[in-house]
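Request: How about a record?
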Amino acid sequence: MRDGSITSPQRCKVHPGGKALTALAMSKALSEIAGEATGRARLTPIRYGLKFYSTGDYMHVHRDDGKCGITFSCGLTPGLGAMGWLPNLRWLSTRQVADRLADTPYPAGGEEFPIRHRALTGFDGSRIPHWRTPLDSRSREVLITICFTDLSVRQ
């Protein structure tokens, strides 16, 4: 656990992306959408990049960095498999989630969160535990992720 998140093993290749991904992550339009979705005034991207999955690659159950107010994901390649997630555990503390899911890389009873092709979908990744089971196809898959944080000053 760190920064309110739950870290876990993963196997895939990561890349920070290039000019196009940086422009998308830094765009005013996406920041405004993130703000509308969260009800927060000043959101800015703090982490974004590409994840390249090959046969057998995975991401165990985790929560994103606690500073992420919203996480956006989409498939850069078509047919990217759904992500597993447990929205019913959203309001549990990090300790409660870690205790409940200890030694469980892919929890049973989870729901599927579809990864859409070239269409960003936002979710509360810092609160909702989520994972990607091992890729069983012979194809390569590319996932985009963009996490935003709130920069507004609270009084």
